[in-house]
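> call design_seq(struct)
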């Protein structure tokens, strides 16, 4: 008999945090789950930890593969999933308490949802998504408001995932930002609950988390792909409010490309940035983006304080009002 929830954890070099992650799953009061851990070529003790837990828990499967990246590891887990719902969490994070899965399952069932989203906390700060709580919407409606990329902030109906043929890009090392608009767009029933259910570990020495290292070309590629995804939805959308939202999100993704291009300061990063500028940004958007590059170049590459360039600093303030 298929489980109610399939949980997928892509694992890479997380020996210091993996046990707490797994414990937060196995301590859940909701037991009708399968856990699929995909070891993505870890070189530390992560695989041995996984095997140790798998011997104790019959509903846990360990898949071992070469280091292909988080996209392929998560896709492999989704491919093997058999549950009614899919949930994925990072190998260094934890669920907030022992009743998270029970709450998610009951809520998704009660409202017959394709996607259920929720809030999270770090060691120092709670993040609350600015969406109406307990309001069922379509994906088009949801994308017009605020949302956060990670798959760990969402419970998804597995049938929906497979109907839209959802997969993470396997050529990116930072996958969530590009994937989220594709995941949410076609949902017929999506809802947010104003509850903190997840603890995202941002402190400590876990350098394997891609989100901790934004100033590199791999991240630029991820934000470049995100910009292109928003651009594609923008040009296919017929809803004027969705168009406006995608234009806003496309610009925000492009800001990250601009910042990385300024910090990395190579011919390759400049080409990524210049190519994306041709997508159809307005003259005002291009003006703000170029000033963003100048600010980051002066601050992080030339190591000059922002006060040295007050006019650039002023335009960055204008940029915040614009977005």
């Amino acid at each position: 008999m298929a489980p109610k929830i399939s949980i997928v954890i892509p694992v890479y070099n997380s020996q210091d945090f993996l046990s707490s992650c797994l414990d937060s799953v196995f301590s859940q009061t909701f037991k009708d789950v399968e856990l699929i851990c995909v070891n993505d070529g870890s070189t530390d003790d992560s695989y041995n930890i996984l095997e140790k837990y798998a011997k104790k828990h019959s509903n846990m499967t360990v898949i071992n593969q070469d280091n292909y990246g988080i996209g392929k590891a998560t896709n492999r887990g989704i491919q093997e999933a058999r549950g009614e719902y899919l949930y994925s969490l990072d190998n260094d994070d934890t669920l907030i308490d022992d009743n998270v899965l029970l709450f998610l399952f009951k809520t998704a069932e009660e409202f017959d949802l394709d996607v259920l989203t929720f809030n999270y906390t770090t060691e120092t700060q709670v993040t609350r998504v600015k969406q109406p709580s307990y309001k069922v919407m379509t994906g088009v409606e949801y994308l017009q408001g605020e949302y956060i990329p990670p798959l760990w902030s969402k419970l998804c109906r597995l049938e929906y995932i497979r109907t839209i043929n959802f997969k993470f890009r396997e050529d990116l090392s930072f996958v969530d930002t590009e994937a989220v608009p594709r995941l949410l767009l076609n949902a017929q029933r999506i809802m947010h609950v104003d509850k903190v259910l997840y603890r995202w570990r941002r402190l400590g020495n876990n350098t394997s988390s891609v989100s901790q290292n934004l100033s590199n070309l791999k991240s630029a590629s991820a934000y470049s792909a995100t910009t292109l995804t928003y651009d594609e939805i923008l040009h296919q959308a017929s809803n004027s409010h969705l168009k406006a939202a995608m234009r806003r999100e496309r610009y925000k993704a492009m800001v990250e490309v601009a910042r990385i291009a300024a910090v990395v300061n190579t011919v390759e990063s400049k080409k990524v940035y210049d190519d994306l500028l041709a997508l159809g940004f307005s003259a005002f958007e291009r003006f703000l983006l170029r000033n963003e590059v100048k600010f980051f170049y002066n601050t992080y590459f030339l190591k000059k304080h922002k006060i040295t360039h007050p006019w650039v600093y002023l335009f960055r303030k204008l940029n915040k009002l614009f977005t």
